Amino acid sequence: MHTDGPTGRDRLRQIARRAMIERGLEPDFPPDAVREASHATAPAGGGDRVDDLRRLLWASIDNDDSRDLDQLTVAEPLAGGRVRVLVAVADVDAAVHTGSAVDAHARANTTSVYTPAAIFPMLPERFSTDLTSLGEGEDRLALVVAMTVTEEGEVVESSVSRALVRNHAKLAYNGVAAWLDGRSPAPAALGAVPGLEAQIRLQDRVASAMSTLRHRHGAIQFHSSDATPVFDGDRLTDLLPDDPNRAKELIENFMIAANTAAAAFLESRGLPSIRRVLKVPTRWDRIVALAAALGERLPDEPDAAALQAMLVARERLDPEHFPDLSLSIVKLLGSGEYAIDRPGHAADGHFGLAARDYAHSTAPNRRFPDLVTQRLLKAALAGAPSPYADGELDALAAHCTVQEDNAAKVERQVRKSAAALVLSPRVGETFDGIVTGASAKGTWVRIVRPPAEGRVMEGVDGLDVGDAVRVRLVRVDVERGFIDFAARPAHGR
Question: What's the pTM value of the predicted model, to 2 decimals?
């Protein structure tokens, strides 16, 4: 692919930096935060209230190139077919102190920003990929959520404690998934640790039971619409779908359970929590219409369990087009937000997860709400009051919602610039697509290969979210991430 000026990677990095600044995010760490990070040392381990759990077969499963490792998992069989699942979450608070310059930057951005060309971490790498990362072979402080899970996948007991842990193997989603599916031998890091293969198979079995139970209760399973950039050196050559797999689902189920347990623990100790909520969708009528067009029936009132059952049926009947349907439903459900839950007050739940109690807690290197939750958990363990005043928590929840939305818009904008870069030689070609947005602000279509979303500039009349269309690429603008299509309804889909 020919590009003028900077390489594809450099060009996208410049676009990302500009987009962050425009959205009120800081792409660079301030000098005082840089100084703090350069002088930081690992927090002391151990202590009377810290368990030594380094002997357990902890392992991390994350992306191939991840270095900011927030979680480790391990499982122990119990009597009666039950299993004790433990999730260790990096004790970021032990190194990043409230009121520090590093904390102030994290509080301003509230999240790491992931773009195709560069990651803009919430914390300096001295912390996120070193001192507060649960790196392989390192002894690290962690908060451990322990859960007793039945054969049916129900969490019947949970607790939170502080511990010293050790990552015995850094594993990657794709390699573990291929091994679990029988498509490849065990990854070298997995086979090198005696007993770890049986350990991961046990975790996979428990996670599968948890997933089945969650979906029976109405949790909704979607296919991600994100794409993975492919670079040849610094030149962007393609975008590939980021498909779900068994290892990702394993970790997802454990993290959802741990986040739910963290919220319940705070409530039991009389402390507030910062919850992630997704309210009942306002465009349920359009979701019902989409289902009807496929020969499926949904109730007139929002029903997460019925929606999940419909999605399961459609994935089985038409797996080729299920990602299109999944994306449409995601768009119609809307965005989540942060809200403060106070003991004794009924809280909104998370419609997509079929959970009332859900507090982000498992990624404190990457998300500020998780770091806030960690500080609340540590206060609860110490029998101390909340380290945040009520009004401060309310302001933080609102700020985190805004900044997470801003970060998502930056990531989406840079993904569009990457897609425009890949598509620039293909102006005039036609593609199959699906409508992902339709309002007075414009109509949007997503094509499958490469995964890319653009605005429909011609032929928008009558189009709505979920409609299949045939589109012609008429223009791209890499700098602004614009991809323009002309559309006509697609038939035979």
Answer: 0.85
Listed in sequence order, the DSSP H helices in 23-168 are 31-39, 101-109, 125-126
Q: 395 with 331: CB under 8 angstroms?
A: no
Residue 5, phi-psi category: left (phi > 0), alpha (psi -120 to 50), beta (remainder): left
C-alpha 314 chain-centroid distance: 24
Tell me the residue ranges of DSSP E strands in 309-439: 337-341, 430-439
Q: How far apart are CA 452 and CA 217, in angstroms?
A: 33
Tens place of pLDDT for every residue, the chain, 493 residues? 444 456 789 999 999 999 999 999 999 999 999 999 999 998 877 667 899 999 999 999 999 888 999 999 999 999 999 999 999 999 999 999 999 999 999 999 999 999 998 999 999 999 999 999 999 999 999 999 999 999 999 999 999 999 999 999 999 999 999 999 999 999 999 999 999 999 999 999 999 999 998 877 766 665 555 678 888 888 888 888 777 899 999 999 999 999 999 999 999 999 999 988 777 677 888 889 888 888 899 988 888 778 878 887 887 888 766 777 777 787 787 777 898 988 766 655 555 454 557 788 999 999 999 999 999 999 999 999 999 998 999 999 999 999 999 999 999 899 999 999 999 999 999 999 988 888 888 998 989 888 888 999 999 888 888 888 999 999 999 999 999 999 875 543 3
- Do 170 and 135 touch, CB atoms closer than 8 A? yes
Interhelix angle 196-216/304-317, rounded to 10 degrees, is 120
CB atoms within 10 A of CB 198: 10
For the chain, the distance separating the N- and C-terminal CA atoms, rounded to the nearest angstrom, is 32
Bridge pairing between strands 170-172 and 60-62: parallel
Q: Using a CB cutoff of 8 Å and minimum separation of 24, what contacts does 52-56 make?
A: 52/163, 52/164, 53/86, 53/88, 53/144, 53/163, 53/164, 53/165, 54/139, 54/164, 54/165, 54/166, 56/86, 56/165
Could you tell me the residue ranges of all domains in the chain?
A: 8-278+335-417
Listed in sequence order, the residues at least 6 apart from 18 whose beta carbon sits closer than 8 Å to its beta carbon are: none
> CB burial class (10 A; 0-12, 13-18, 19+) of residue 47?
exposed
Q: In terms of residues, how long is the chain?
A: 493
Burial (0-12, 13-18, 19+ Cβ within 10 Å), 242 = middle
Per DSSP, the three-state class of 349 is coil
Beta strands (DSSP E) in 150-190 are 155-166, 170-172
Task: Return all residues near 30 (Cβ < 8 A) that are at least 6 apart.
Answer: 101, 105
Nearest Cα to 379, choosing from 141, 163, 160, 165?
A: 160
Angle at 195 between CA 189 and CA 198, to 5 degrees: 95
Indicate the burial class of 156 (C-beta count within 10 angstroms; 0-12, 13-18, 19 or more): exposed
